[in-house]
């Protein structure tokens, strides 16, 4: 299995004696009491970014985004102070997140892609872990498929929430 293939992990939790489901639910299926924690690290030739996104289920779906670290250029090493904001995900954004999750689970391999996006998603139900997935993709060509990277989604949510960079 190569690094761009989604790897599903079957794990157990100290809080729950039984095994967790092997995967997380979709964003649109997150219900009240569900939380999806997404730790993502992405980069390319001149960029590097780390985010922690926490999606809270229910209607509407909300997300808290914490920028853990960002380097606009690994050459100049210009770090950005960590920031946090909370936003409500529109139906359009939830559909885009679901489409991205489907892509993570079945990525189209693009040769010669220097960009990458990797991370771990952990779903909690009433505070108890119920699923975990790990992903690593080359995001080249996502725009051709009408998809956004998580970094682009963070920018969209920030703009729509009125949060400043």
Describe the structure.
The protein has one domain. It has 2 helices and 9 strands; from the N terminus they run βββββββαββα. It has helices spanning 91-105, 150-161, and strands spanning 7-8, 12-13, 16-19, 34-43, 48-56, 62-71, 84-88, 116-125, 128-137. Strand 5 (48-56) and strand 6 (62-71) form a beta hairpin. Mean pLDDT is 78; it is low at 1-21.
Overall number of strands: 9
Main β-sheet: number of strands, strand sense, barrel status? Answer: 7 strands, antiparallel
What percent of residues adopt helix (DSSP H or I)? 10-25%
Provide the number of structural domains: 1
Q: Could you say which structural class the secondary elements and strand pairing correspond to?
A: alpha+beta
The strands making up the biggest β-sheet line up spatially as 1-9-8-4-5-6-7
Average pLDDT number: 78
Rg of Cα set: 16 Å
- How many H/I helical runs? 2
- Taking the alpha carbons of the first and last residues, their distance comes to 38 Å
Overall 3D geometry? globular
Low-confidence stretches: 1-21
| Proportion in β-strands | 35-45%
* Strand/helix succession: EEEEEEEHEEH
Keywords:
165 residues, two-stranded antiparallel sheet, disordered N terminus, alpha+beta, 2 helices, globular, 16% helix
In short:
By secondary structure, the protein is α+β, with helices and mostly antiparallel strands. It has 2 helices and 9 strands, in the order βββββββαββα. It starts with 6 loop residues before the first strand and ends with a helix.
